[in-house]
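Dear colleagues,

As part of the handover before I leave the project, I'm documenting each prediction I ran so the next person doesn't have to rerun anything. This entry is a single chain, and its sequence is reproduced below.
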Amino acid sequence: MVLLHHFSFGQQQRLGTWFIGTVQLPAREKGWGGFLEGQARANAFFDQGNYYEIKGGVSYDLGPAFSAMIATGRYHTYNFRDLADGPQTLETRLWEQITMSQNVDRLKFEHRYRVEQRWFGESTPENIAIQGRFRNRIRYRLNLMIPLNETTIKSKTVFVSIYDELFLNVKSPNLERNRFYGGLGYQLDRHWILQAGLVNQYDQAPVRLGSKNNVVLSVMYRFHRKTGERYRLPTQVD
């Protein structure tokens, strides 16, 4: 997520809102897949919209437990008090990642390792001085999913989703952000998956310090291959 530069945490609402929509093409056990995703975020609870992003990418499954991906996205942050002024920050992002999954009985774990290249466009002179035009970042996420009424996540399955993600800058200050999410999901059928939860985002550097809770509502639509499709957890792409 692009850093919000204009407001301090003391000026922000205590609870924000994130909306996520994802279309996914799963891969075979060894083969190509992909995704397209859009997000909109609000500074308050269903109010004060100030951010949106769109991204997409291709993946290649190396086997039943490993997947590689390359993807790109465009990220826009606004002053919700004056949207007509245009975005305060524009970011273009490219990333490469490896995902590893493992099962321990009913517990479904996913380890995600991501390296990001980030280019910043039009911003205020103060923001450019702080962050520069180009930055690298490393992210690691540990995700846990627990199906409640089935042993695997499939049609008509209720599940718990929990993850923690650490964001690290290559240059000092190294610690930038941490996200902790907990929520409930429901897979209606082979195609549609709904989730609702709460994410706490703690920002350390380089611009602001503090944390904020956000309600997260997401919907995922999956296309399916006729044969040989790899089982994949319905984890959030972001």
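The longest strand covers residues 89-104. The chain has one domain: 9-222.

All the best with the project,
I.
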